[in-house]
Design brief:
Blueprint: H1 2-21, H2 26-40, H3 45-62
Length: 64
């Protein structure tokens, strides 16, 4: 859960930076958020979650 919150916070900060710099339009950000919610309700959600957790574990293991 802590990884999910950290990733969500990081992505939110990046989205705000991109919106303020003009690199990401608000409408594009809203579409990406809606796509995320739709993907969370599909059968692909466990695979996506497993991939993100595996990647986070791999990155965590590199620093040791």
């Amino acid at each position: 859960m802590a990884i999910s919150v950290s990733v969500a916070l990081l992505l939110l900060i990046l989205a705000v930076i991109f919106i303020r710099s003009g690199g990401l339009k608000t409408s594009h950000a809203i579409i990406c958020v809606l796509l995320g919610f739709l993907l969370a309700g599909t059968s692909a959600a466990p695979t996506i979650h497993h991939t993100l957790v595996s990647t986070a574990n791999m990155i965590n293991g590199v620093g040791r």
